[in-house]
Amino acid sequence: MAFPYKHVVLIGATSGVGKGMAESLVESGVKVTAVGRRQDRLNEFVNKYGKDKADGAVFDIAEYQKAQQFAADIMEKSRDIDCLFLNAGIQRNWDLAELENIDLEEFNSEMTINYTSFVALVQAFLPYLKNQKPASIIFTGSNIAIVPASTLPNYSASKTALNVFTLCLREQLKVAGSHVKVIEISGPPVQTELHDYMGAETGRKMGMPLEDFTKLVMDGFYAGHDQIVIGSILDPTTFNEIVNKRRTAFEKLAEIIRVATKTHKG
């Protein structure tokens, strides 16, 4: 199966997993509008692949209040965009045993960037995607959405929130009869800049090589999966069993709620 989307707008494309996925998609024949905060890196991406295959747009997702205007500008320029790929994020260690010393504004900014900004971007782009066929929204999540890392309480919580939002968005779009597909990537640690807070030399050696990760993600796209689970620090068999049982339980509860709601309305 081929990747069915022709033009992807990829948020967080100037570094790490986002950059790796942007390059993999372009090299597979998909046009990518790369989005990030650093104009110089966006220019490098466009120059490398050419304007027929790549474009760039500066946007800081922390300023999520500007998402509506950003989406309007992007879609006015490129009316053929049929896929929103949400990938950006930050990761920080927090010592909750010293919670009284934590700056709450800084603490909350991690949730804003990793979760709230994604919700705002989905809200902004979804009306346009509903007019494209096929169309999809892709989220880069994490294994620790399911099994949190004790030293990363806020990052884990943000990824759990994103996972819940993804499940509910997929379910509600399906019930509404929408053709927009919701895809979630659940990955292990990957060797990127995300872990630079540990020290660049140590952090960038942590996890799966980026090239291996992007290949497995592309394989998941080609297979048509809406949930692409890659690796785990835990035993993969055990982890996949937890993920599958959780999704099955979610879908059963969703069916119970649908029936109860229909009965109540009737």
Automatic annotation (TrEMBL):
Record keyword Ion transport present: no
Q: Which UniProt keywords are given for this protein, alphabetically ordered?
A: NADP, Oxidoreductase
Molecular function via GO: oxidoreductase activity
Which residue ranges run through the membrane?
Answer: none
Xref: Gene3D superfamilies: NAD(P)-binding Rossmann-like Domain
Q: Which PROSITE patterns match?
A: ADH_SHORT
The record, for InterPro entries, names: NAD(P)-bd_dom_sf, Sc_DH/Rdtase_CS, SDR_fam
Q: Does the keyword ATP-binding apply?
A: no
Record family assignment: Belongs to the short-chain dehydrogenases/reductases (SDR) family.
The name this protein goes by in its record: Oxidoreductase
Which species is listed as the source?
Mollisia scopiformis
